[in-house]
Amino acid sequence: MDVLHLRRDQKDWRAQTRVIALKNRLNSGERRLPACRSRQLAETGNWRRIELRAQKCCRQGCRQLQAGSLCSPSHDALRGVLSSPCRPCFAQRGPKVTIDMLMGNYHIAVVGATGAAGTELLRVLERRNFPVASLRAIGSARSAGKSVPFRGESVPVEKLDDRCFDKTDIAFFSAGGDVSRNYVPIACQSDAIAIDKSSAFRMEPHVPLVIPEINADDVRRHRGIIANPNCTTTVMLMALYPLHRIFHVRRVFAASYQAVSGSGTRGVEELTRQTRDAVHGPKSRTKPGSSTSPEATADKTIPASVPPKTRIYPHPIAFNLLPHIDSFLDSGYTKEEVKMQDEARKIMHSPALRVSATCVRVPIYRAHSVAVSAEFQRPLSVEQAREILSKAPGLELIDEPHSNRYPMPLTVAGKDNCQVGRVRLDCAFENGLSFWVSGDQLLKGAALNAVQIAELL
């Protein structure tokens, strides 16, 4: 990646020359471009690429452009010349160039656009009105030819290949570690910034691992790749980090309760199929003899008495719990459990933090929850903790247990904010606090966090 970084730096002097020429034309009062040049810019999108590179050049001395040199007296005139009354087509590679695009719209690629996380990411981009100049929906060969909706249009899904990232500014990756390892470097070679959901690059020293509410400044260190944390780690840290800032956490014991959508659409389909089969029951489950026999009646009261077929998980997930997410290591922990410690250390810049986690897959469709017991260096009270948590960004305090109000997957599914409750002093630690936090892992744990990272750019 260092080679790629140097290669991109070598282009900066050419980009700076083009930016200065563009700035001089705007400041000189030139109000109209030749028609042939306007068409060329509209077809190639070069204005957008010059603007993006201009941001890089600002760090090397072209600060007048960043401060607003483009907002010259000719701004309104150019807006009138280049604007189009028709709505832009986001499925096209070369949208109509407007002064708004020059001032900050982006050419976007979404890898894994038909998956659970990719579909949610498209919704978040639209809902948050992210400045999209053009959109490329990219999927596997199986998904190619399908279409995904975006801003009232149907965007065709392209097959993933080496040319998918030409003229792309930001590439979102939501297709798994193998795809990211193979194609993120290709996206960076095309001068795109890759925001990767997988674990492929999270622990690389030069790759920022970012939760915007916690370590937004780390984005500045990127060399073309920014990693999205593990969804369970994100949900836990949304409540743990505000307390850590004041009381300095030393160690954490955590148990996660993770929905099947964390395994993608196939996990959702498996839970649905197994639940349906267990409740209604295939004909093969009917025992010989009378249907009113004690044996038959007992069998109907135990939906999982005949194990259903499994495809995603090693055991049935319907009416069951699996203390097994990702593969097991020699230590006895799973990779998912180790991620919670390693990623929390990196995000919070706390290399001495110790986290012992048990991750459990539960038969619900959406939203992860984590039971946390944390030990801090400084003493704290429940009142102090509640005040801090109630003011934390991206977090809601729902803590009225006597009124049966506490966070639940049903109450956070589809919501941007995480929720924390059951706040109490931990009786096993001298400076300990226990709490329960829930969050939508497809939103804050994946799509929303990725878009928030892109907004920082």
Question: How would you explain this protein's 3D organization?
Answer:
This protein starts with a helix and ends with a helix. It contains 17 helices and 13 strands. The protein is of the alpha/beta class. The model is unreliable at 1-102 and 284-298 (pLDDT under 50). Helix 4 packs across helix 5 (63-69) and helix 8 (116-127) crosses helix 17 (443-456). The chain is globular, with a radius of gyration of 26 Å. It folds into 2 domains: 2-229 and 449-456, NAD(P)-binding Rossmann-like Domain (Rossmann fold, 3-Layer(aba) Sandwich); 232-259 and 321-441, Dihydrodipicolinate Reductase, domain 2.
Write the layout of secondary structure elements.
Layout: H1 2-10, H2 12-27, H3 35-44, H4 46-58, H5 63-69, H6 75-82, H7 99-102, E1 106-111, H8 116-127, E2 132-139, E3 147-150, E4 153-159, E5 170-173, H9 177-189, E6 193-196, H10 212-215, E7 225-227, H11 231-247, E8 249-258, H12 265-280, H13 294-300, H14 335-348, E9 354-361, E10 368-376, H15 382-391, E11 395-397, H16 409-412, E12 418-425, E13 432-439, H17 443-456
Parallel strand pairs: 1-2, 1-5, 2-4, 5-6, 6-7, 8-9, 11-12
Antiparallel strand pairs: 3-4, 8-10, 10-13, 12-13
